[in-house]
Structure prediction request, 465 residues.
Amino acid sequence: MKTQILTLMLLTLFGVAMLTSCKKDVEPDPVAEKKGFDAINAPGDFNWSTLNKAAFEVQVTDVSGSPSAQLNGFPLDATDLAGNLLQRSSVIDGKARFYLELNKGINQVRVYAPSYQIESLLTLNGEAYVFQLPEALKSTKTYTDSDGDGVFDDFDQFPENPARAYMAYYPSPYSDGTGFKSGDDETLKWYYQMFEDLWPTEGDYDMNDLVIKMRMITYFDAQNKWTGGTFDFFIWTNGAGMKLGCGIEFVDYLSDVGNKMEFKYLNPDQLTLDPGTYDNAHTMLDPDVTNSVIIFSDVTAVKSSNYWNTGHAGSANPMADSISFSYSVAPPTYWMAGFLYLFRTDDRSHEIRPVGFPPTTAADWTLFGTHQDNSPTAAWDWTPGTIFLYPLDPPFYADENLHPWGIELEYAGDLPVPFERVSIVDAFPDFVAWAESGGTSFSTWYENPVADPTKVFNVGDLITP
Prediction:
């Protein structure tokens, strides 16, 4: 009898050890684990991002404050306060247009006219943006325009390509070590998108079910129109218990309307992938969504070695495998905005997005408003050319407490992530204060993980030179 009891105890311990050493196959019942997150009381307009997305126009005036065309045809730069280029734009009809994505802690940019070497500081407070010329402009030298697009070679980032004049780097500024840079050689920032995968039901809020690390370059022509761009993606973590795919949907960013953004759906065939820039085994135009690109359909098929990078089961260098593509937009349009979405490999219609953005045309509409999801359920119009405001009220992909299934942040470092089944609230002590401030305080919460190696996994330690 004692032998049987001992054998049973050993088998039980062995089973527990096996379960704790393997990737989760099914998310746990999260009731006890998500209570810390459930207590967060975030503002109603919070988008769970560390970034401000802002499209704005700068009016060029003379010393008296009257509109001026003296800079017409010349470039105007938006830089950070250290002088690193964020975006270059042509002055047309006395105005220059910009689209910046900056940390919410940044409230000033430097506007600089390289042709005249004059500058001004602008405060990003939603008021009219004005660049005032000094009383006497410096004389300019004679310039050459090789491709005839109206932008002089000295300022044209594509001096022999009339379809492209400028590049904008997001996040900015950064340098990738290949000659593409917006400023110094030290700065390298990334977007991170952190996802929970059980929408429309809630998970454990470890936000590590899929973490995408990415950066992009956007191309503009001499008229400041969006003509295309390039993306680089890395799978930082893959803690999901199911196979996932990932895509990105593109829309035309028209303007800011109060605290919302005005978008327009692209026309069919306006978006194309540039031949030779992508691996068609994984990446393709989304056959079900005319304004989208499937980055990959199965996360497990992309990686050269299987890993989860969540502190349990397999771990590996997440920068060993990249997914890249370049695309073109024709005819070119106003500004680009791209929004990621996840989908289940075995059910393309089951999509998951960060808070606020509407689903694609391929999504299963019957899932909205079910379980913990509190998304709008009224009919949606995806007709090309349709204009809509983002986010709605209530927003898509949020529960009744406006809690999300995805978080967006910008970071110049290697993002640590919560261990499996450790809430992001317990992994990052500043997270709650950041969320409850609407992102205005503790905007670098991700730089200060808890000093507990059982709660936070340092994914960056896996990166090899």
User: Anything to note?
Assistant: Residues 1-23, 25-33, 175-181 have pLDDT under 50 and may be disordered. DSSP finds five helices and 23 strands in the chain.
